[in-house]
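dumping these here so i dont lose them again. two proteins, back to back, each one seq then C-alpha cells. dont judge the mess
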Amino acid sequence: MPTPSFDQWLGVTGLLAAYARLADARQLDDLVALFSAEGVLVQHRTGTHAVGRVARGHTELAEAFEALRQFPITTHELGQIEVTVTGSGAHARSTCMAHHISDVGATRVRYTMACRYVDTLVQVDGRWLFAERLKYNDWTETQLLSR
C-alpha cells in the first residue's frame, strides 16, 4: 500500500481530529461539512458488525449528529491512526475513546465508548473529506461521576 506523503498524512489526520473537535464543540454544521455531498456515516451496534444507523448525505448527517446535543459534555480522544493513499483518495483506520456526560437528576453519568473508525476519503478542491465513515463500538461502560 502506498505510503502517504507528509502533507497527505497531515491532511487526513487533521480531518480526523477536526471531526472529534467539532463533535465536542457541537459545531454540527461544520461537522457535516467534513463529509462529501454524498457522504455516508454507518454506525454499527456495539460489539457487532450489525448496522444500527446509516446517514447518507448532508441532511441525514445533520439529523444523526443532533444526537450529540443530549449530552452537556463530550470528549473524543483519538488513538492509533493508520493512513493509506489510493490515487486521488485515501483510507484511514483509527481508534477513539468517546466520553459522553449526562446529568441524571443530581447524578452525573459518564458513558464511554471504545470506537474504531474505517474511513474512505476523497479530495474535493484540495481538501480531504469523508466519503464513507464506518463506526464500530467495541465496548461501552457507564460510570457514576462525582460532581
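---- next one ----
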Amino acid sequence: MPDYPITIEGLYIAPKHRVFGRGQEDLSGVDLLSQDSVKVIADAGIEGDRFCRLRPSYNGHVTFFSREVWDEVSRLLELPISMGPELARRNVIVSGVDLKALYGVEFLLQGIRFFGSGHCAPCPAMNRAIGPGATKALRGRGGLRAQVKSNGFLRVGHCELVTERVFDSRKAGEQPLSPKLP
C-alpha cells in the first residue's frame, strides 16, 4: 500500500461545547483545547471530546481538516494571520493529504486505523466563527469525517499516512467541489 508523508499540525478537542450553528453560541474557539497528543478509542472517538462515545456507528468520531484548504480560504476571505484553522472546529489539522481521496476508504495514521466516512460539511455558523463568506468558501472542502477502527495515540508532527487509495498530495489545497459528495 502506498504511504504518504504528511504532518499533523494540530489536535483539538471540545469537551463540552456543542455547536450546530442554530443559536448564538460562542464561536470564538475559546472552548477548543489544543493538544500535543490525544487518545483515540475504536468505535468511540477522541477521549475527552464532546462526540466521543456518541455511538459506535457515528460517522464523525474524528474530523480532519486540511491546512492547505485553510490557507486558501484565508487568502480568499483576507483573514488576519491571527486566525487559525482550528476555527473550522475539526479535531485534526493536517497538511500534505488530499482528504477527498480518503472518502470511503480505510487509512492508517500513526498505527491507528480509520475509515473515511465522508465529507465534513461546514455549517452556517462558520460565517460567524470565521467571517462572512466562510461557509461558502468551505463548501465541498470542509474536511473529512472518519470512524475510528482501532485504539492508539495521535501526536502532532510528521508521520506517514498509509492507504490503498492513490492521490497527489501536491493537490491537497485544491479540493474543488466534487459533483457528488458521499
